[in-house]
Amino acid sequence: MTAVLEVDGLVKHYPFTGGWFGRARGVVRAVDGISFAVPRGETLALVGESGCGKSTVAKLLLRLIEPTAGRVLLDGEDLTALQGEELHAARRRIQMVFQDPFASLNPRLTAAEIVAEPLVNYGGADPRAIDELFDRVGLARHQRDRFPHQFSGGQRQRLGIARALALRPSLVVADEPVSALDVSVQAQILNLLADLQRDFGLSYLFISHDLGVVDYIATTVAVMYLGVLVEIAPRERFFAAAAHPYSRALLDAVPAPDPRRRRKRALLEGEVPSASALPSGCRFRGRCAFATEICATTAPPLRQVADRHLVACHHVDQES
Amino acid sequence: MTIVRTERIAAGRPSRLLAFLGRQKVILFGLVVLVAMVGIAVLAPLLLPDPKAINPIYRLRPPGADFWFGTDHLGRSILSRTLHGTRVSLAVGVLVAGLTTMLGVVIGLMSGFLRRMDGIAMRFMDAVMAIPGVLLAIALMSLFGSSLVNVIIAISIPEIPRMARLVRSAVLSIREQPYVDAARTNGTRLPRLLRRHVLPNAMAPILVQATYVFAAAMIVEAVLSFLGAGTPPEVPSWGNMMAEGRQYLQRAPWIAAFPGVFLAFLVLTVNLVGDALRDLLDPRLAARGHK
């Protein structure tokens, strides 16, 4: 099992300034040293609440912003070290599907032009290739000359997927691709993503806050909290035996389909601390029911607790 | 459903554009007047006598059957001079609007996208903006001498910072749009990114500003000529005519009146077209302004 993508110690700090002369006042630790790998042909779901740094990770992987530290290996090649033509050449192997299916499509271009853009950037667009992409994502060929505002949300997201697919990338980063869509349309788009993965051997980094969606599409689940990963586990393992208190709270917050089923719920209290004024030790300790002294002094590293199951918590014991 | 309607217009359907013009009487009126003015400017030398022909026998004739607009102190036809003046004003308006837009777009795009350019370019623009436009133009004219080309340059320079700032602010908001991120991840290089994704989406405010520059340039040209710092005196521009007519304002008010009326009318028309264009391109402003 080879990894398409390996992320090693990725960091993004935003210094902010204040005062009259713009002295540095501190840093926002948006992404604070995360490492993970996406195996070829599989889907890693990156889960976490708003503002935890998920989208920053996506932008870092695509070099839309520059990392403060760390490496991003795509097919073994370090993207963060590339410049100019080398970066241009590497970019076609990692593509993105955006959250907002309206704002991510240029309103002045037609559907065909939008899908053709990546092809034009890498040598030229064959009209037949665009027809095939339309067929592949379930758009009608006669819709080629329509503008984005003439499509529904689901159709627009299909356009976004066709655009990401045009260059036959190794990895597609999908940043909340269905969260702006109606539930019925969400299912269609998820099915499309799953079909494409099977047919083209695509690998996905799937960013979401919806565990229902994650359960459907993920091979592996990685939970992010305030710029760090707190748990990584295979999907079945995660939904059966998530170990980190934060992961458990996320699972408990998923609404149950049966209202009569009473569950023991551990809902979180308190606010997420600011990423510019992090607590000492474990970032989650302020909201954690199990926090003890060691949590205030030492940040817990990701430790293996079972096969392919890593948790960053002092109070989770390794299974024998 | 204003939004849907106008976006279809933007999509470039000629029949829909005509239907829209039918509803927007103001823009239709403005366009008709503008086309008429351009027609006058083009045809004036063919239909009318030489505006510079001096005829002392007929000096200071009031408007009448022989001279529809009267004559000036040298017996020159005011009709011929006024209509020839249209050429000067339109040429100055169009060329200043064009020059300002071109340079403003280049400076605005660069400072919006290249962070290092931004501070330097914008502080320089601030400095230019701090000088009153007409004063700066007068200074430039006295420095470089009186000619139509110098008038156009002198009027353009004080207008460029406003256009550059407008383009910059539009670019700053567009560069944060996800479709710009998408274009970058699709491997779009900077020149194409600006040309195909950024500039087309910034066109609406640029076009509207260009029409205002058009109107303002014609006024400034008249002001400069009136003050004797504009087009050379032998050129029949409206500002020159009003300056000459000033001395005869009580005996022969028509000398200054006709170019004045034409200037006011043309500026008003261009401003109306600018307003209507703003409504057409930005439905949100239209909803607040009218209806």
Gist of the model:
The complex is a heterodimer of chains A (320) and B (291). With 320 residues, chain A is an alpha/beta fold.
For the structure shown, list the relevant keywords.
heterodimer; A: 320 residues; alpha/beta; eight-stranded mixed beta sheet; four-stranded antiparallel beta sheet; 10 helices; 12 strands; globular; B: mainly alpha; MetI-like fold; 12 helices; 76% helix; disordered N terminus
Describe this protein's structure.
The complex is a heterodimer of chains A (320) and B (291). Helix content of chain A is 30%, strand content 25%. Chain A contains ten helices and twelve strands. Chain A has an eight-stranded mixed β-sheet with strand order 6-7-8-3-9-10-12-11, with helices on both faces. A four-stranded antiparallel β-sheet of chain A has the order 2-1-4-5. In chain A, α3 (111-121) packs parallel to α5 (153-165) and α5 (153-165) runs parallel beside α6. The longest helix of chain A is centred in the middle third of the chain and has 18 residues, at 183-200. The mean pLDDT of chain A is 89. Chain B is mainly alpha-helical. Chain B has a single domain (24-58, 68-289), classed as MetI-like (MetI-like fold, Orthogonal Bundle). In chain B, α8 (178-185) packs across α9 (190-226), α10 (238-246) runs antiparallel to α11 (254-281) and α11 crosses α12. The longest helix of chain B is centred in the C-terminal third of the chain and has 37 residues, at 190-226. Chain B is elongated. The relative contact order of chain B is 0.14. Residues 1-11 and 286-291 of chain B have low confidence and may be disordered. Chain A binds chain B through residues 59, 62, 64, 88, 91-92, 94-96, 98-100, 103-109, 117-118, 121-122, 147, 149, 160, 163, 166-167, and chain B through 4, 7, 10-11, 177-179, 181-189, 192, 196-197, 200-201.
